[in-house]
From TrEMBL, chain A:
Protein name per the record: Uncharacterized protein
Bilayer-spanning residue ranges: 6-31, 43-70, 76-93, 113-135, 228-251, 263-283
Classification of source organism: Bacteria, Bacillati, Actinomycetota, Actinomycetes, Streptosporangiales
Similarity field: Belongs to the cytochrome ubiquinol oxidase subunit 2 family.
Pfam families to which the protein is assigned, alphabetical: Cyt_bd_oxida_II (PF02322)
Keyword set, alphabetical order: Cell membrane, Electron transport, Heme, Iron, Membrane, Metal-binding, Transmembrane, Transmembrane helix, Transport
Annotated source species: Planomonospora alba
Automatic annotation (TrEMBL), chain B:
The species this protein was found in: Planomonospora alba
Family: Belongs to the cytochrome ubiquinol oxidase subunit 1 family.
Entry's transmembrane regions: 20-41, 53-71, 91-115, 127-145, 184-205, 217-240, 260-283, 295-313, 340-363
Coiled coil: none
Listed name of the protein: Cytochrome ubiquinol oxidase subunit I
Cell membrane in keyword set: yes
Bilayer topology: Multi-pass membrane protein
Pfam short name (any one): Cyt_bd_oxida_I
Domain of life of the organism encoding this protein: Bacteria
Localisation per UniProt entry: Cell membrane
Keywords: Cell membrane, Electron transport, Heme, Iron, Membrane, Metal-binding, Transmembrane, Transmembrane helix, Transport
Length: 299, 393
């Protein structure tokens, strides 16, 4: 039972970086990929349906951390106190940008919240990178935390770029399209690669990416964009997967008693197919064909 | 203020903000679902326009519910790791179930509902909002299970200095839960009905062109607020018995708890009297009584104020215990929490969330002011103007 729950925990954390990582990365690159207001509108509209379904993975991670590893929860979050505060504030600012940008008509209003989306996404990527490196290398390793922040930001930006290319193959601004090339960024990819660490972790990340890729391909009829997205999902999830592989024995020691796990299994596992089904439904509905839809977006 | 006071104040501020938005979510979600269901079944364009307009208010409100909720979830680990260390094996379970079974699904289905307009088949799109309602209420249930455990740690025993699950069923039938959950749900419906009343009164007062739209909305608001008030007040008084049994000093120990309770009851009783004996009997004429509309607008915030006072009474009245009779709040605080840490996080959370809460309410007011014609939620794919009602008949 403890093995099953640690596997579920791993799936949720890896899923967070594979799915929500794409939204974070696209948010980071929003001013670069969308140089005009129309371009940013198209990018945000294409990404928007994935945001609500993406950020819930971290809520689920925190829930499992509390329910399955209650003694680890306090230790980990408290050890990372300033980084967790940064992460939460960044998350809030990013979400506010998405929810608020279209609520008033003015150009300055929308441009201001677009900056908040970008700022919040960077905050998320950097605090996550620092937190993962901190957990891997220990609290005294400030250079490692900085390197981790930079590496994860690069990985997520890479993932966000392939996500944008998959969603809008013709680019956000078809007339100009300076950033429509779906090929991998040769500079960021190796940087992200060095951050992946342990091979076992990377394998888990690749597994997650393959699953992601399969879901995407089956939903949308395949294509080069989907394969590139699967690869970048692996890159985005690999650091967390590597850390998990290293931390697994420590986590297992902190597992809640079997009575608690039985309750959680009984109450949660029957809903797992619905959770998976809802996620698949989102990816099948709002893929590239949906992104080209003429509906005015709510975000 | 020392570290403990700051940590408590941070939890009180973020928790109150969260509940302010959650209570309206609980009230509006079922109303929007009912509007869409009836609109779809009867093929009634007015009801479908009501779905979009009130739905837009619901989702703008929901945004702040999410971001304040994120802070709540992580705050346990940041400020209160002593609680998860001592009681996490029991208390963590309902929170984990809430995160996975309720919120995970609620948010995913809400995304499908918001962005699935004109993309999903109508029946499936309708199913999405019902999935959202169901999971929102499941979320309220599990959060109340967790909170009631803090009020009365039923179903757990201490073993080796930590609480462990003995009988999970006892958590679900906790007497501090069974009367409080319908009380909270009633408060949500009351708040939702109140917003329908206040916003409709504003539009009717301004001699809106959408008379029928806001006449129906106002009447629905009065009925729902009255029903909510019956549920809230009934299950409010019903809580005195379990409270007297499990927390006899709840409202006499801490002054603030007693004051919160007193003002909540006063507001609730007065409003309920007005609803039952003035607004409900005159529901047929109320939409035409222009002089009454400013009064309806003025009482809109009162259910929200009462809801916050109620939470204050419930939570402050538990002091000094985090887990009643087992673990004090002082022992629940993270060991090693410094004034600098808690001041920094308090300023960040309260500042950002407070500001966003104000912006959110201004945006809701903006949506109300601009009326149904300007609703962007679920707008049609092509910019062709809507066919006039006369032609569709």
């Amino acid at each position: 039972m403890d093995i099953l729950w640690s596997a579920l925990f791993a799936v949720l954390l890896v899923g967070y970086f594979a799915f929500e990582g794409a939204n974070i990365g696209l948010g980071m690159l929003l001013p670069v990929l969308g140089r005009t207001r129309d371009g940013r509108d198209r990018l945000v509209a294409a990404m928007a349906p994935f945001v609500l379904a993406g950020e819930v993975w971290l809520v689920a991670v925190a829930g499992v951390l509390f329910g399955v590893y209650p003694r680890a929860e306090g230790e980990v979050l408290f050890a990372l106190y300033p980084l967790v505060v940064c992460l939460l504030v960044s998350w809030i600012v990013r979400d506010a940008g998405l929810w608020f940008r279209r609520r008033l008509d003015g150009s300055a209003w929308r441009a201001g919240w677009d900056r908040m989306i970008c700022l919040g996404s960077w905050g998320l990527a950097l605090s996550w990178g620092a937190a993962l490196a901190w957990l891997a290398a220990g609290p005294s390793a400030v250079p490692a935390a900085l390197a981790g922040a930079a590496a994860l930001a690069a990985a997520l930006a890479f993932h966000g770029r392939s996500f944008a290319a998959w969603l809008l193959p013709a680019g956000p601004e078809p007339a100009v399209s300076p950033a429509a090339d779906p090929a991998a960024d040769p500079v960021t990819a190796p940087a992200a690669g060095t951050a992946t660490g342990a091979g076992a972790g990377a394998a888990t990340g690749i597994g997650a990416g393959t699953v992601t890729g399969t879901v995407i391909r089956r939903g949308t009829g395949g294509g080069r964009g989907a394969r590139a997205l699967a690869v970048s999902a692996c890159v985005a999830a690999a650091p967390a997967a590597a850390l998990l592989a290293g931390a697994a024995p420590w986590l297992l020691e902190h597992t809640a008693p079997v009575d608690t796990l039985n309750v959680l299994s009984l109450m949660i596992l029957p809903f797992a197919p619905v959770m998976v089904g809802a996620q698949v439904w989102v990816w099948r509905t709002f893929g590239p064909r949906g992104a080209a839809d003429r509906s005015p977006s709510f975000f | 203020m020392d570290v403990l006071d700051l940590a408590r104040a941070q939890f009180a501020v973020t928790g109150s903000l969260h509940f302010l938005f959650v209570v309206l979510t609980l009230g509006l979600a079922p109303l929007v679902a009912i509007m869409q269901t009836l609109g779809t079944l009867r093929n009634d364009p007015l009801l479908l326009r009501m779905t979009r307009f009130w739905g837009q208010i619901y989702v703008i409100n929901y945004a702040l519910g999410i971001v304040t909720g994120l802070v709540m979830e992580f705050q346990f680990g940041l400020s209160w790791s002593g609680l998860s260390h001592y009681a996490g094996d029991v208390f963590g379970a309902p929170l984990a179930i809430e995160a996975l079974v309720a919120f995970f699904l609620e948010s995913t289905f809400l995304g499908l509902w918001i962005f699935g307009w004109h993309r999903l088949p109508r029946g499936l799109h309708l199913a999405c909002i019902w999935a959202v309602v169901l999971t929102a209420y499941a979320s309220a249930f599990w959060i109340m299970v967790a909170n009631s455990f803090l009020q009365n740690p039923a179903g757990a025993v201490e073993r080796g200095g930590r609480l462990v699950v003995e009988d999970f069923g006892a958590l679900l039938t906790n007497p501090m839960l069974t009367m409080a959950l319908p009380h909270v749900i009633g408060a949500g419906l009351w708040a939702g009905g109140s917003v329908l009343m206040g916003a409709s009164a504003y539009q009717l007062f301004r001699r809106t062109a959408e008379r029928e739209f806001f006449t129906r909305s106002l009447r629905l608001g009065v009925v729902v607020a009255t029903a909510g008030s019956l549920l809230t007040v009934g299950f409010g008084y019903a809580q005195f018995s379990p409270v007297a049994q499990f927390q006899p000093d709840k409202f006499s120990g801490a002054a603030l708890a007693g004051v919160g309770l007193g003002f909540m009851i006063m507001i609730g009783q007065l409003l309920q009297l007005v609803l039952l004996f003035v607004l409900l009997p005159t529901i047929a004429w109320l939409p035409r009584w222009r002089w009454a509309h400013p009064l309806l607008m003025a009482i809109t915030p009162l259910p929200f104020l009462a809801a916050m006072l109620g939470w204050l009474a419930r939570e402050v009245g538990r002091q000094p215990w985090a887990v009643y009779g087992r673990l004090t709040v002082a022992d629940a605080m993270s060991p090693g929490l410094t004034p600098a840490m808690i001041t920094m996080s308090f300023a960040a959370f309260a500042g950002v969330l407070g500001l966003l809460a104000i912006v959110d309410y201004l945006l809701i007011a903006h949506v109300v002011r601009r009326g149904p014609a300007a609703a962007t939620l679920g707008a049609a794919p092509l910019p062709s103007p809507e066919r006039p009602a006369a032609l569709s008949l």
